[in-house]
Amino acid sequence: MIAPARDVHIIGVGSCTPDRVLTNKDLEQIVDTSDEWITTRTGIKERRIADPNTPASALATEAARRALKDAGIDGTEIDQIIVGTVTGDRPFPSTACLVQDRLGAKKAYAFDISAACSGFLYALSLARTQVASGAAETVLVIGVETLSKIVDWTDRNTCVLFGDASGAVVLRSTGQPGGILSTKLHSDGALTNLLEMPGGGSLHPASHETVDKRLHYIRMSGNDVFKYAVRAMESVACEALEAAGLKPEELDLLVPHQANYRIIDATARRLGLPMEKVFVNLDRYGNTSSASIPLALDEAKRQGRLKPGSLVEMVTFGGGFTWAAAVVRW
Ligand code: UT7
């Protein structure tokens, strides 16, 4: 990749979660599961669930408003809005266009990216090139999911894992050293069927039959995904660090995708990082797919774990398969 011409900094961060909390105990009333199984196999204790009248665009807009406030700018200054999501309000138009309208971001052009749990880092990487090249001055990057709306609430293998949330960052060149130092993205389309929602697209358009066959829900071969996730997250994390000329031990904080505590723990071990240097909040939110990293980043910042000069790496893995990492000097 050509070296970026300008520095690109994260100048604002925000997030939003629905108020409704669904605990493991609540799930015991819905499917044949237990708090003990969910806690030991995943680390998740509770997750947030959007109410029926709250679409992804509402959560995305609120996270964006908070990120803009944090950056000290308003919507009219945004040149580009990229939303990573697989649970947008509608197949089209994009959720990004809905957010653009609600923020009054008149001059921005807006579009969605579909990369499952890697959606946010894919969007961040693309946004970085836009700012670095001078094609855009100010870019809003959002990860948002309302996975509760595509979860099969009769399938204990998946329904205990996911939650709803959004997170956003604002990118700009500041002329200062640091900022986003490297990004690395990967895909493997041979493995699509291990994690998918089969119905609703051009392969299986919505019909009574697709509803009867429960094709409009998430399906996951959890164990296979688990094994790939650990290997891929370690390897892409090392690749992004190497591209920035850094070693894992130089990191102040790892902000991994929050899918499973055991995946996070295994990734940290392989990188030789103690858990004190790893940010974890999946106990309270579950797996929020593309929202998980910006939500974690926002909490880490508010907890004072991202100080000026801190070296932080974000790393993720998701359906597609897709996986990605980004290294940032805060
Ligand atoms: O967001 C990116 C993509 N997603 C991920 O990264 C998720 C990756 N996968 C995982 O996190 C884990 O594989 C899971 C948490 C999904 C599953 O954990 P596991 O240790 O891989 O369990 P398993 O799928 O091998 O299932 C073990 C047993 C099975 O019972 P049998 O066949 O051994 O009798 C399941 O039926 O656990 C059973 N099981 C449950 N039991 C109670 C599966 N789900 C549940 C449940 N409650 N909710």
UniProtKB/TrEMBL annotation:
SUPFAM superfamilies: Thiolase-like. It comes from Eiseniibacteriota bacterium. GO terms for cellular component: cytoplasm. GO terms for molecular function: 3-oxoacyl-[acyl-carrier-protein] synthase activity; beta-ketoacyl-acyl-carrier-protein synthase III activity. Residues 258-262 are annotated as: ACP-binding. It is found in: Cytoplasm. Transmembrane segments: none annotated. HAMAP family: FabH. The last Arg residue of the ACP-binding site is essential for the weak association between ACP/AcpP and FabH. Catalyzes the condensation reaction of fatty acid synthesis by the addition to an acyl acceptor of two carbons from malonyl-ACP. Catalyzes the first condensation reaction which initiates fatty acid synthesis and may therefore play a role in governing the total rate of fatty acid production. Possesses both acetoacetyl-ACP synthase and acetyl transacylase activities. Its substrate specificity determines the biosynthesis of branched-chain and/or straight-chain of fatty acids. It catalyses: malonyl-[ACP] + acetyl-CoA + H(+) = 3-oxobutanoyl-[ACP] + CO2 + CoA. The keyword tRNA processing does not apply. InterPro entries: ACP_syn_III_C (IPR013747), ACP_syn_III_N (IPR013751), FabH (IPR004655), Thiolase-like (IPR016039). GO terms for biological process: fatty acid biosynthetic process. Homodimer. CDD domains: KAS_III (cd00830). This is Beta-ketoacyl-[acyl-carrier-protein] synthase III. Residues 111-189 form the Beta-ketoacyl-[acyl-carrier-protein] synthase III N-terminal domain. The keyword Membrane does not apply. Keywords: Acyltransferase, Cytoplasm, Fatty acid biosynthesis, Fatty acid metabolism, Lipid biosynthesis, Lipid metabolism, Multifunctional enzyme, Transferase. Its EC number is 2.3.1.180. Pathway: Lipid metabolism; fatty acid biosynthesis. The active site is at C117, H257, N287. Belongs to the thiolase-like superfamily. FabH family. Residues 241-330 form the Beta-ketoacyl-[acyl-carrier-protein] synthase III C-terminal domain.
